[in-house]
Amino acid sequence: MPAPRPDQDAKPCRLPRWRLMLVIATALVVGACGFQLRGTDMLPPELNPLLIEGGGATALGRALIARIPGSQIRLTEDPAEAQVRIRVLDEGRGSRVVAVDRQGKVLAYELRFRATFEALGADGQVLVPPQSIDLVRTFDDPDIEVLGKQEEAEMIFADLHDDAADRVLLRLRAALR
Is the pTM value of this prediction over 0.85? Predict the structure, then answer.
């Protein structure tokens, strides 16, 4: 008699009924509390179209543009067509040493991103007056991990740009309520 094949004796994987009910109940509770993924609908669709002045010329402008595709907002390049204009007035980034060892070797840096923006309505009214966003992260610099420090710093700056874009959209949304 031939030996049974492993796939013949395999039983389908089934969750016990109580686990299935727990998964369903959790999904219902999370859905009922108003939970939404971040960044998908930060602005109401009435603001179509939106103009980000300076768009890809600034890190904050690029981060703002990256947030729009998941929403119901349409971007425009025409100021006359825009219902809302977000203007990036200034931005900068920098770093400074925050910790050294006894021999003077740097152990940690503070990475900083600063941006100033304003938002204007279609008729030029100020929706959000000029405001600054100042974000800071600490970057550890251990001497054992020499490779990849510059890439890690750039990743941290990219996260700072994304955080700043989220804050700009959050402030605009709050101003429009």
Answer: no
